[in-house]
């Protein structure tokens, strides 16, 4: 949510900033802006909307002499997506220019305090209050660094800043509190970014700033202090991703690329962890014995797609390991009196590891001495620092805003965890354990089989893409599949789509069914509820809804009942959510592509939601 990039060196800053912002565009696209410094003045260029608008603004000028700069891509929080609210923001006299990711919670108080002191405000943003407040503190300090240190102690909320001043043109100051920021180390040049993709391919060595760090970055030096002004020594680390990870590799959209690479991703997720059906599952990083020695119940906390993975996890952990599991949206968990305690294993699932609600919830659970297990795709993310156990997804960087490969990797990782618990507790007999392990090992091949049939899924999408209402129904663990399928469709196509437990249809939603509605259902032939869901589909058919099935069943009757059938390979009901979701991802993709949507950057959304 919002992206930041900074550059200080001997090369032209503009291309570095624009390249960096391009790779961060999935974090926001309400406006974009850069500020560049040529040692005598700082010029700010901004544009509403996508980065391409900013590129148009910049296209007629040359910026060769500007070798320092900061850039920003905005996802609007405070203040509409207008030019006035676009970053960078300047202090009134222009001596402080900054970009910001996060929210300044006390900006109203600061604004009125600063207004009394004679400052004027030209935007509705919290960020402008920070720019003027830093300027105010700077004016009574000997250096920009000292001014920033004074100011950050008076700011409440979450903030990552890149700050420049015309008075001290040889530096950029980077600040991190509850919003990620890294510094990339080059030769005679240094970089700052809110996430690795912004600087991937430019540097291989980075410093992860921690909350409470202030880095003064010049072209040949990086000095980090804490908010009290004490020097902090930082570890230099190597970037774990290749530039290739953020290329589309010829696909029209990142989403299609990420859907298509899922079989390889799952091979990676399983590697070393599950190597044979007779061998124990090995989850290095997960303290299974410690967990089992004290866990009476499990709470899983997540948001969005990760919450759907949590729904599947509840089903399988209870079925395989017999431990009671509750799941909750992080945004709900953090504002209610809960019963989390030291005997609760709290699992936080977050692809990005930066979702503010999930991090806050995990911090709260940590304070209650719960064992914290984090399931994330980003081992370098903020949530990891609270983890007692860590289960990385190994799905590679996910660029498309809509989560696809990370969801499949979440499911597979959580199956491994559930089976590991079952193995340790001996709650599943050996024959079944071996069967489930065998099925997991076969997942990559079965994913390939589904993906190779994507043409026929596209044909179905071509037929139905103009429909305005979709219902997704399923039972058991696949209720999560239904909800995830609906979420995927609505977020990238803007079609109204809702997921329900199939049995709930008749308790209200059925009132909406008619010939203009599509009902997508997931039904597994070996399930105890197969006949029940068939009845639910009959009920929908009686209301003239168009019916599409995702199933592995060869039942002839389905050809009579359904308008379309999408076949998936045979799999046990327990593991079926892993496969059943893939056609729904493809349907959402092809429908949205037919509608000409901006699939990788759907309106109003951003990849990581770093504000509560
Ligand atoms: C949907 C989607 C979002 C995220 C949610 C949580 O496609 O991507 O619903 O799943 O914002 O994000 P993470 O998993 O990064 O915490």
Mean pLDDT: 94
What structural category characterises the helix and strand content? alpha/beta
Cα end-to-end separation: 11 Å
What is the CATH architecture term of the largest domain?
Answer: 4-Layer Sandwich
How many independent structural domains? Answer: 3
Q: What portion of the residues fall into strands of 2 or more residues?
A: 15-25%
Shape: globular
Report the oligomer.
single chain
Instruction: Bin the helical content.
Output: 25-40%
Number of strands: 24
The low-confidence parts are none
Q: Give the strand order, joined by hyphens, for the main sheet.
A: 3-2-4-1-10-9-11-14
Radius of gyration: 26 Å
Question: How would you portray this structure in words?
Answer:
The protein has 612 residues and is of the alpha/beta class. It folds into three domains: 3-245, Aminohydrolase, N-terminal nucleophile (Ntn) domain (Glutamine Phosphoribosylpyrophosphate, subunit 1, domain 1); 248-450, Rossmann fold; 453-607, 3-Layer(aba) Sandwich (Rossmann fold). It contains 18 helices and 24 strands. It has an eight-stranded antiparallel β-sheet, covered by helices on one side. Helix 7 (262-270) runs antiparallel to helix 13 (430-452). The model has no long low-confidence stretch (mean pLDDT 94). Fructose -6-phosphate binds next to helix 9 and helix 15.
């Amino acid at each position: 949510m919002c992206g930041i990039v900074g550059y200080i060196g001997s090369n032209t800053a503009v291309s570095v900033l624009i390249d960096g912002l391009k790779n961060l565009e999935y974090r926001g696209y309400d406006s974009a802006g850069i500020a560049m410094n040529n040692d005598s003045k700082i010029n700010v260029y901004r544009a509403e909307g996508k980065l391409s608008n900013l590129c148009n603004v910049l296209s007629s000028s040359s910026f060769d002499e500007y070798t320092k700069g900061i850039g920003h891509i905005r996802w609007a929080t405070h203040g509409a997506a207008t030019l006035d609210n676009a970053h960078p923001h300047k202090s009134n006299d222009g001596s402080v220019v900054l970009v910001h990711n996060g929210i300044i919670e006390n900006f109203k108080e600061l604004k009125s305090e600063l207004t009394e002191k004679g400052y004027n405000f030209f935007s509705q943003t919290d960020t402008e209050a920070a720019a003027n407040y830093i300027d105010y503190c700077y004016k009574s300090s000997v250096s920009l660094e000292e001014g920033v240190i004074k100011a950050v102690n008076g700011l409440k909320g979450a903030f990552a800043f890149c700050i420049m001043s015309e008075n001290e043109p040889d530096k950029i100051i980077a600040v991190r509190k509850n919003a990620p920021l890294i510094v990339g180390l080059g030769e005679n040049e240094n970089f700052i970014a809110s996430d690795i993709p912004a600087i991937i391919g430019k540097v291989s060595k980075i410093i992860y700033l921690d909350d409470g760090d202030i880095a003064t970055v010049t072209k040949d030096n990086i000095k980090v202090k804490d908010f009290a002004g004490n020097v902090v020594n930082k570890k230099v680390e190597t970037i774990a991703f290749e530039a290739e990870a953020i290329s589309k590799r010829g696909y029209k959209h990142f989403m299609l690329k990420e859907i298509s690479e899922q079989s390889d991703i799952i091979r990676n997720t399983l590697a070393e962890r599950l190597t044979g059906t007779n061998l124990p599952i090995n989850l290095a990083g997960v303290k299974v014995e410690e967990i089992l020695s004290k866990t009476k119940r499990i709470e899983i906390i997540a948001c969005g797609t990760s919450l759907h993975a949590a729904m599947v996890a509840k089903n399988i952990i209870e079925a395989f390991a017999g431990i009671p599991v509750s799941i909750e949206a992080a945004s709900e968990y953090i504002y209610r009196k809960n019963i989390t305690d030291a005997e609760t294993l709290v699992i936080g699932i977050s692809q990005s590891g930066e979702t503010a609600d999930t991090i806050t919830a995990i911090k709260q659970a940590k304070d209650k001495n719960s064992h914290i297990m984090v399931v994330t795709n980003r081992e370098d993310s903020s949530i990891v620092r609270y983890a007692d156990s860590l289960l990385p997804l190994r799905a590679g960087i996910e660029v498309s805003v809509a989560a696809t490969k990370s969801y499949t990797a979440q499911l597979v990782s959580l199956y491994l965890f559930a089976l590991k618990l079952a193995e340790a507790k001996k709650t599943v007999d050996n024959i079944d354990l071996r069967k489930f392990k065998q099925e997991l090992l076969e997942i990559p091949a079965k994913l390939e089989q589904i993906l190779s049939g994507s043409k026929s899924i596209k044909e179905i999408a071509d037929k139905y893409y103009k429909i305005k209402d979709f219902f997704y129904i399923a039972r058991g663990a696949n209720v999560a599949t239904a909800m995830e399928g609906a979420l995927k469709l609505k977020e990238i196509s803007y079609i109204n789509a809702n997921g329900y437990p199939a049995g709930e249809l008749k308790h209200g939603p059925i009132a909406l069914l008619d010939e203009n509605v599509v009902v997508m259902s997931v039904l597994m032939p070996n399930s105890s509820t197969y006949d029940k869901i068939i009845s639910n589909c009959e009920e929908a058919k009686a209301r003239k809804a168009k019916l599409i099935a995702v199933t592995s069943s060869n039942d002839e009757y389905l050809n009579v009942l359904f308008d379309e059938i999408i076949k998936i390979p045979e799999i046990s009901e327990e593991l079926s959510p892993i496969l059943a979701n893939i056609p729904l991802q493809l349907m959402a993709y092809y429908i949205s592509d037919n509608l000409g949507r901006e699939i990788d950057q759907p309106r109003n959304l951003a990849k990581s939601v770093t504000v509560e």
